[in-house]
Design brief:
- There is one protein chain.
- By secondary structure, this protein is of the alpha/beta class.
- Helices cover 32% and strands 15% of the residues.
- It contains 17 helices and 16 strands.
- Strands 3-4-6-8-7-9-10-13-14-15-16 form an eleven-stranded mixed β-sheet, sandwiched between helices. A three-stranded mixed β-sheet has the order 1-2-5, with no helix packed on it. The protein has a two-stranded parallel sheet with strand order 11-12.
- Helix 12 packs parallel to helix 14.
Length: 534
């Protein structure tokens, strides 16, 4: 399965990227006067002050989905008496470990969010835009507290909320006894958005000015909300980073055993997988209630195996939450009319491909040609080679990475952008810093630089352990300004044109001429891919 490789790379990416980086709330020794208290609709919380901003972490936005609430839609969190300590993050959701041996980590009691806001004294009484971040991790890994948004709050003047949501079999399971595949992970996110609507003003935010943003699986989540009727009215803008409604990866792209990857699948498929999983777990019962009781009786470790977590790492459509496949909804104009920013990195697939090159190398033009044939068919070989000739790249492996990056990420995102731009303003970007720091801890393969790989824009928006050069810090400040200006007004800064028939995409790289407008569809052969790989 694709998700096995996705997790093998991306799970490690997330955890290694934040290794050794203490969360903002860990600023030790803060005196009591640096512990601000804010009321919420469930009770007051005590956060931490960090000079120019404040954090409130581990706030429950729904009841723990444990015991009888496992595989139920999120329920309201209980009220509490007294002041709840919000000085540290809550538990992360049950997830797969990083690459290597080891069991699952996290807890089923994990529906917590974190709020980062500028100092109240700096607002001038004005309500601030709210930005809600959905983390990536292939729907099997990740957590909101891995991302520290102090720069977005201080420089951009935004209230930033990062969210946990159920993962893998706990978040995306389906079975006839559950009435199908309700989409608990996306429903968790909607519960967090309802919390934001009820509580943002208490933290200085404007509940009528909410921007969703997310990367990878987080971008896919934003796509789901764009097309989910149940998300209507919960947000006013959307930013999708390296995860679009049309993201699709060809079969055998990384390993010979991998099939085609599509992050959105039919409810029927998820339910069929759920029936098979229930039988394998010894819970095949004639009465629906007995099946669910049996499954809820299985302990966390029994369910959180790599096979089961990866099998249920796809978002189901054809249900109440997502009535139709999201990309078809966009094509038909059936989505929430909000301004959109959508983009990708220039070399999305390099970091994934690098992890499989040792086992499945591409040493020469013949191996490259074989990859094209295996993924797209023999008839496509001449056309792909004409668009991506091996001689135009330093190595055949880098040529194949360009093919996969354009076919899987860049052109699907621009295709979605074209559909959306018929109805609302769309701004497209390409993160192009090929000298971006490799903050993942994953070693590069000789002769195969990561360049501007999947996720490499994240240290330009969040505080991570990545040493940026002076020009890269300037790019970070510009990106922070663009993202937060869009959150505030629905428009980024002035030099970013709308995406439309001209194909204008803002290329983001450091240096005097690093930020400039390109014709994205032309540079990435999207007319070819739209016909070849719809």
């Amino acid at each position: 399965m694709w998700s096995a490789v996705w997790c093998a790379v991306w799970c490690a990416f997330l955890l290694l990227a934040t290794a050794g980086a203490a969360p903002a709330s860990a600023a030790a020794g803060a005196p009591a006067t640096d512990r601000p208290v804010v009321g919420t609709d469930r009770g007051p919380v005590r956060g931490r002050a960090h000079g120019t901003y404040r954090t409130f972490e581990g706030i429950p936005f729904a009841a723990p989905p444990t015991g009888p609430l496992r595989w139920r839609l999120p329920q309201p969190a209980a009220r509490w008496t007294g002041v709840r300590d919000a000085g540290a993050p809550g538990a992360r959701c049950v997830q797969l470990p990083p690459v290597g041996p080891g069991g699952p980590s996290g807890s089923e009691d994990c529906l917590y969010l974190n709020v980062t806001s500028p100092n109240a004294s700096s607002s001038g009484g004005q309500r601030r835009p709210v930005m809600v971040w959905f983390h990536g991790g292939g729907f099997v890994n990740g957590a909101g507290d891995l991302y520290r948004p102090g720069q977005l709050a201080v420089q951009g003047g935004a209230v930033v909320v990062t969210v946990n949501y159920r993962l893998g079999i706990f978040g995306l399971f389906g079975h006839p006894a559950l009435g199908g595949a309700p989409g608990f992970a996306i429903a968790d996110q909607q519960a967090a958005l309802r919390w934001v609507r009820a509580n943002a003003a208490r933290f200085g935010g404007d509940p009528s000015n909410v921007t969703l943003f997310g990367e990878s699986a987080g971008g896919l989540s934003v796509c789901a909300h764009l097309t989910s009727p149940a998300s209507g009215g919960l947000f006013q803008r959307a930013i999708l980073q390296s995860g679009s409604c049309s993201t699709t990866m060809p079969p055998r792209s990384l390993l010979p055993t991998l099939g085609r990857y599509e992050p959105f699948v039919s409810e029927q498929r998820t339910v069929a997988d759920g029936v098979a999983a229930a039988a394998a777990l010894g819970c095949d019962r004639p009465e629906p209630g007995a099946v669910v009781d049996c499954l809820r009786g299985r302990d966390t470790a029994t369910l959180a195996t790599p096979e089961l977590m990866q099998r249920f790492s796809f978002v189901s459509y054809g249900n109440r939450l997502l009535p139709e496949e999201p990309r078809r909804a966009l094509e038909g104009g059936r989505f929430h009319r909000v301004p959109v920013v959508e983009g990708s990195t220039r070399d999305e697939m390099r970091i994934f491909l690098a992890q499989s090159l040792a086992a499945y190398p591409i040493p020469d033009a013949g191996a490259y040609r074989a990859r094209v044939e295996q993924s797209f068919g023999a008839a496509a070989v001449p056309a792909v080679e004409a668009q991506y000739p091996v001689a135009a790249y330093p190595t055949p492996a880098l040529a194949w990475a360009a093919v996969l990056s354009d076919a899987s990420f860049t052109c699907p995102a621009l295709r979605d952008g074209r559909a959306v731009a018929r109805h609302v303003p769309v701004y497209a970007y390409r993160f192009s810093d090929r000298d971006a720091p490799n903050f993942t801890g994953l070693p590069e393969v000789e002769g195969f630089p990561y360049g501007a790989s999947h996720g490499f824009e994240l240290p330009y928006l969040f505080t991570m352990d990545a040493a940026l050069t002076a020009p890269q810090r300037e790019l970070s400040q510009r990106m922070t300004g663009d993202w937060t200006a869009f959150a505030r007004t629905g428009k980024p800064l002035a030099a970013w044109p709308r995406f439309g028939s001209t194909g204008s995409v803002l290329s983001l790289a450091p240096g005097p001429d690093g930020i400039h407008v390109v014709n994205g569809p032309a540079e990435h052969h999207c007319a070819f891919w739209d016909a070849q790989w719809p």
